Amino acid sequence: MNKKNQHMDRSRRLSLWVLQPSLGVGLLAGTLLASTTGCQTSGASASRSWFPKLPFRSVATSETETPEPVQAEETPRVASNPVTNAGGKLGLPSTNRLVGYVTGKKHEDIPRAKEYYRRGDERFRQAARAPKATRTGMFAEAAELFQSAGKEAPGSGLHQDALFMQGESLFFANDLNGARDAFEKLQKDFPRNRHGDRAAARLFSISKYWIDVSKSGSDAWYSLNLFDTTRPLRDADGHAVRVLDQIRYDDPTGKLADDATMAAAAEHIRNEQYEKADEFLTDLRETFTDSDHLFLAHLLGIRCKLEIYGGPEYSELVLDEADELVKQTRRRFPNELREEKYNQLLARAAAEIAYHKAEKLAFRAKYRERKKEFGAAAQLYRKILRDHPTTPQADRAREVLAEIEKLPATPTQNVAIRAIAKAFPSSKRSTPLVTVDSLQTGDETPAESPTAPPTETTGKKLLR
User: Fold this and answer.
1) How confident is the model at residue 430 (pLDDT cuts 50, 70, 90)?
2) Three-state SS across the chain?
3) pTM, whole model, 2 decimals?
């Protein structure tokens, strides 16, 4: 009956607005404000005794009463008077509600958010004690409640807790894609949140599971995952590496930043992507100087650089970097190198670097031989004997040196080539123009002669 009277009352106001514009505008504004605010239900305020000990502090709001527990299927009850509330007071909207209505943005409703959080926490605890058959669905329901709690209080501390618990619920509901999105949103929207380490640990676990899936061979590049929520749509290994990279990007000083960097490098090495692995290992050595993975990062970095080297026809810069890394490893980790396996591993790497450098010098020397530049070739062979005397290239360098030392250092030209060379202008620099200034020494001036050139005394004047 009240709803019918209310409807008739609004119809009369609308007709007055059509007949009397000035009065109609005022009544319509009051109706909009009342409908925006929502009328409070009658009855005494509910008790706060049912509130649990939540992991956050309540934020002061303009409401003084605690609302009833929210039911998803309940429709809001409207008082008979759309302008006044149950206490007879004017039901004007609060500042947050009015701004939210004008801007179209969701305003904070902390009591409502706390109620959603309480229900989500209760559902989460029930799911933890439930049988395994029904546990997944209950965790999914808890995730929805935590998501609703975050939407009711955006940007608050409660929102941080709700995002983390949403990710936890999805993690235990085997929705690893949704859990990753929730945790990454938490790290992105709240860079200094108090759940950073725990969120990073969950992301690390998710990436490790996806790497194991890729290792098992069940994640082929041509297949699409349409039903399993524990894996991405495709390329689980690539998603795992991106998650690891995001961990160290979100919190470079976190507890798992160096672990994520090493795990990503190891995965690139497994996929034979040595250049990408070298980037991660270089970042680990330069950024995390106190990491537990530092010694392993040096050894793997040497191996990556040797794999990147393309051969004697390419630059030897990467060999120089590997050689410097070997020397640095010997200086910084003498205790670790006391173990025979690590010492032999480093010695083999150093011998391989020396072999490649000697191979590079021998390649250049042979090129000079073909051009009959025996002097330059002899210098390169002597450098092999001086810097890499134990390499196989050193034996050949000794034999070749004995043969080319008696040959001319530069190639000799025959008569026809010399005649052709004289027929064309020489590339030698010509002598500069001799001017009067260049002949003057000190304060002496040359004696003028009848056949002397004009009396200009500078090259600039001569040009003029």
Assistant:
1) low
2) CHHHHHHHHHHHHHHHHHHCHHHHHHHHHHHHHHHHHCCCCCCCCCCCCCCCCCCCCCCCCCCCCCCCCCCCCCCCCCCCCCCECCCCCECCCCHHHHHHHHHCCCCCCHHHHHHHHHHHHHHHHHHHHCCHHHHHHHHHHHHHHHHHHHHHCCCCHHHHHHHHHHHHHHHHCCCHHHHHHHHHHHHHHCCCCCCHHHHHHHHHHHHHHHHHHHHHCCCCCCCCCCCCCCCCCCCHHHHHHHHHHHHHHHCCCCCCHHHHHHHHHHHHHHCCCHHHHHHHHHHHHHHCCCCCCHHHHHHHHHHHHHHHCCCCCCCCHHHHHHHHHHHHHHHHCCCHHHCHHHHHHHHHHHHHHHHHHHHHHHHHHHHHHHCCCHHHHHHHHHHHHHHCCCCHHHHHHHHHHHHHCCCCCCCCCCHHHHHHHHHCCCCCCCCCCCCHHHHCCCCCCCCCCCCCCCCCCCHHHHHC
3) 0.64
